[in-house]
Design a protein that fits this description.
elongated; alpha+beta; three-stranded antiparallel β-sheet; 15 strands; seven-stranded antiparallel β-sheet; 4 helices
Amino acid sequence: MLTETEQSLSEARPNTIDFDRISGLHYLGNYVRRLPINLARMMENAYDWEHLPHVHSSSFSSIDLIDSGTWGWRAKIGLPGGAPASHQLLDLLVDSDRHYWVSTVYSGPGIGIEIHTQATKIADEEIEVDVRFYLPESPENETGAEMILAYMQQQYATLYDEDQDLMLGRQGALNDRQRWGANVPDSKDVLVGSAAELDLESIHTVELENGRFCVRQHEGEWIVHSAVCTHLLGPLDESAINEHGQLTCPWHGYHFDLRTGENAEQKCRALATAPKLIEHDGQLYLRPA
């Protein structure tokens, strides 16, 4: 929930980038990095506010959306620590035509910091991001400026380490979906392995012609479920099962009922129907549905 002051601050924020005002800000420095992904994945990532506390848990503890649109998004963000003072109000404004976005802290710790990012295509599957850090005024001394810049550069190195894994995983999942869609579904049983020899503590991932599925032990029996989240195709092949019998997507925290595949938040479709798990002569097989 927003306080009245936070609500007023949020309502007064613009939804477009004012490029003319950049010259009046204090430029601290930048962080430049090449990434082995395409512009589509990068822009998708910029708009994706939901992933912050899940993929970047060392930097963000929670996020509550205030507003969003083609212009970007605005949210109340929790920082590690949990105290009320560890919340920020932040917005991210996007100029999609320029592949440019600006995130600004407009309340809370770090108020006034602006991060301007320009993404540039280098090749079909390679981009460069130039992340530029600004303050509303000059720091009191050069030492302070250097400390802030070093902190921001290190933080963004970590953020892009984590985002690169997500974006590569997303592209790989899109490629998989396209490939699976072009295949004729399996008509024969697919071997998983020997029931006596499969590790009871491991998740065994099996790829069929029309999808990827996990075979694992739960409450003393072998079960099977989809390895792909239906929201943005996040990986479920390492997801632990919580006390409610649910899988959790590591990208956005969506929960899925292990038995039915239904999404607990009712934000996306149920998981793909799992094949039947059968045992014959001590061997486990998946029988396409």
